[in-house]
Amino acid sequence: MNPVLKLLLEGEPLSTEQMGEVLGMSEVEVAVELEKLKEEGVLLGWRPIINPDFDEDVVRAVIEVKISPEREGGFDRLAERISKFDRVETCYLMSGAYDLMLVIHAENLKRIASFVFEKLATLEGVVSTATHFMLKAYKEQGYLIARAAAPEDKPSVSP
Amino acid sequence: MYDPQQFVAKHVAGLPRSGIRDFFAIVSQMKDAISLGIGEPDFITPWHIREAAIYALERGKTSYTDNRGLLKLRQVLADYIGKNFGMGYKPENEILVTVGVSEALDIALRAVINPGDKVLYHEPCYVSYHPSVSLVHGQAIPIATSAADDFALDPDKVIEAWEPGVKVLILNFPTNPTGGVTDRTKLEKLAKFVIEKDILVISDEVYAELTYEGTHTSIASLPGMQERTIFLHGFSKAWAMTGFRLGFACGPAPLVEAMMKVHQYAMMCAPILSQEAGVEAIVNGAQSVAKMKEQYQRRRDYITRRFNEIGLKCHVPKGTFYAFPALPKGFQGKSMDFCQGLLNAEKVAVVPGTAFGPSGEGFFRASFSNSYEQLIAATEAIERYVGSLKL
């Protein structure tokens, strides 16, 4: 695996200068590697990982969507169309009881509901939807929400 | 005037205080110091292992166990050692579960050393080897290893150090504090000598899984050596389980039985919760160990490169999570002076090499079991300090 990507995946927030420092590369070389990762479609972008419960004015929901596959392109055309809505944070094709899993957000339940019955359910090819509202987050993208504090009595020097 | 000190046994009163303890006393009084002096993983024990201990507690597993340790733990250990080290031990009578490798070393020495027996060990080394030998009234004979050969143990030096009355040779590869490893060829030569002189080897291999180059070779796996080696290992380092206090000793049945006698009177058994966690660590922990090892290796590469750039000559440790760089060329003082100067000037704690024996003079130990942010900040501070010395 690319060393820059490996370092990113460790999850410690480092500047490109610090990454270069750690990897024995110049800052420019790190930037070039990052650019290459973007071009290859491996690195899609940068976003801080925020506690989903932080903003009380945002409601999130998981929506199961059943759709009819098409003769050419299967689920792709419709899945890509649905993905283009700004409200849709995540869209996966799933195995099992339904076809697409969406994670969406809105200012309140009403807006989520209107998105489902105005935009989603009305699309040609969407057979059914099932909406589940997220109540509380315990872990977000590998980060525990209630982080265990490091033990304070760990000695600062030991054998 | 009454003085309780009069009751302290002579051989205990005569033990030197650990250099680490002295240094810790200084560091602990300092706020906001970055410590590269910690001899343990910075990772918390992987959750699946902690969870196994919690589950055991929930099921009311709060009793003593068999003195030798839970049979299921000894069984999985036998499999693990067979697959990863190449030795075959019987769970029934050749494996003993202990309270960390520290207890394993202590009872191994207590089981085999008669007063006056001589024990060879290589230096710089873990702080407890010499005192542990002294506590059983043995005579400890250090063999210096050097930076010139990356702190590997030269068999010729062992041959040179040998004298009549030597009963035991203590080995520790990869070595705390140097990260030194002795390759198979040297171990074979060493094994030949050990067999010739009828010496027992006590091999502390607690860092075995944290070997970065090539594969780890245990001296016990060499022909004729399993029967004359007490193999010590534990969960603290590779599985990040220091607080669980869990180790094990393997060896020929009569020696394990002798250790058992000491263990059953001194310790009874290792804590059952730790043992349950140990089963989980062995059975399902390979991925966690590999992940931590990968991160240590990248940090190792970074810190050794930086030390060499700063002008602190540092070999690349082949194992452990310690770098053992030399003091800057031209520095007139001792290791302790350098470390205290660094602590006072830059609030960075590293451990003087002399804490690991006199042959550690001229070096210091820096643990790279730390976040990159801390390693970057610490190496920058060390660079500033070395620059300020105007050597």
Which structural class do you get from the secondary structure elements of chain B?
A: alpha/beta
> What is Rg of chain B?
21 Å
Please report the number of helical segments of chain B.
Answer: 13
Strand residue content of chain B? 5-15%
Low-pLDDT runs of chain B: none
Q: Per the principal axes of the C-alpha atoms, what is the gross shape of chain A?
A: extended
Given helix and strand content, the structural type of chain A is alpha+beta
Report the oligomer. heterodimer
Which key phrases capture this entry?
heterodimer, A: 159 residues, alpha+beta, 4-stranded antiparallel β-sheet, two-stranded antiparallel sheet, 5 helices, 30% helix, 21% strand, extended, B: 391 residues, alpha/beta, 7-stranded mixed β-sheet, 13 helices, 41% helix
Description:
The complex is a heterodimer of chains A (159) and B (391). By secondary structure, chain A is α+β, with helices and mostly antiparallel strands. Helix content of chain A is 30%, strand content 21%. Chain A is built from 5 helices and 6 strands. Chain A has a 4-stranded antiparallel beta sheet. In chain A, strands 5-6 form a two-stranded antiparallel ribbon. The longest helix of chain A is centred in the first third of the chain and has 13 residues. Chain B is an alpha/beta fold and 391 residues long. Chain B is built from 13 helices and 12 strands. Chain B has a 7-stranded mixed beta sheet, sandwiched between helices. In chain B, helix 4 runs parallel beside helix 10.
Short description:
The complex is a heterodimer of chains A (159) and B (391). Chain A has 159 residues and is α+β, with helices and mostly antiparallel strands. Chain A is 30% helix and 21% strand.
